[in-house]
DNA sequence: GCATAAAGTTAGTCTAGGCTAACAATCTGC
DNA sequence: GCAGATTGTTAGCCTAGACTAACTTTATGC
């Protein structure tokens, strides 16, 4: 599973093959949860680079609604996992891997958002819910969402 | 916000009123994430009591796909938060509050699941995605899901 | 009714992801 | 070009949620 590539250091989960369907589902949710924050960060970093020209920790902190030290620590993990590069007191850059993940996330986010809007949801609620939902949508579900949002 | 009542001991988040929409959305996701595990547990406990007559830690561990000590620690938190009662070496019971939360979760889970199925998703994927999505769906979105699943 | 198996608990470790306090570096305005 | 403001980092603390190892209690089979 590609989504796990940068999570090798994480404690091994019980073998899902021996567990029942329910346990598999929970296992999947835990795996997704592990990656959520990283996905949110690379997506935001890509956006900041696009709109501001650079991704500064202070802006990341503001957009994420957390403090600067939290951002610093998280960026350390992202760098360790090969998603970003950074130099001390300088702004942040995405690696190829980080850029690819950001693109994928943005794609998923947009489909989920368009889908919710096409259901008739107001844009503020749609944005908030999309932020939570996007990390838990399988390829199959995403395809159905996209098809629905594109119906005439 | 009722969902926060049993999370008083958790570190205070930055005031969402001062943050922008994006930060609010992330804040909401973090709040939801805090409650996810508790919701999964009470939902499962209610189900076990209904189907097996009692909720034993060993069954919770199997269904959740985690080890027994993890279950023990988590049950300790649920008891502390007033969602369950337990006696040493005995099975687990829901408090009124826990029962109410379980009911609400089951309700949300069922709507999300029926919605995904009505989109044409296979039941296995629907079950897995519902498990992740159900915690991130607002009341408003849930209402739309329910309406869609009930369309003729 | 006792030995053993199964279930539950306790203790200790680890990582993620929050925070504050304190300090260091960079940027800005005069 | 330097003082003060802004930004970034480091250190240290905390909780949640996962694990293993070791122990205790309860249940079971003969």
UniProtKB/TrEMBL annotation, chains A, B:
SMART domains per the UniProt record, alphabetical: HTH_DTXR (SM00529), HTH_MARR (SM00347)
Gene3D superfamilies the record matches: Iron dependent repressor, metal binding and dimerisation domain (1.10.60.10), Winged helix-like DNA-binding domain superfamily/Winged helix DNA-binding domain (1.10.10.10)
Task of the protein: In the presence of manganese, represses expression of mntH and mntS. Up-regulates expression of mntP.
Family listed: Belongs to the DtxR/MntR family.
Region (Disordered): 1-22
Domain HTH dtxR-type: 34-95
UniProtKB keywords: Activator, Cytoplasm, DNA-binding, Manganese, Repressor, Transcription, Transcription regulation
N-terminal signal peptide: none
Annotated InterPro entries: DtxR_MntR_Metal-Reg, Fe_dep_repressor, Fe_dep_repressor_sf, HTH_DTXR, HTH_MarR-typ, Iron_dep_repressor, WH-like_DNA-bd_sf, WH_DNA-bd_sf
Subcellular location as annotated: Cytoplasm
Isomerase listed as a keyword: no
Keyword hit for Transmembrane helix: no
Species of origin: Paracoccus maritimus
Complex and partners: Homodimer.
UniProt name for this protein: Transcriptional regulator MntR
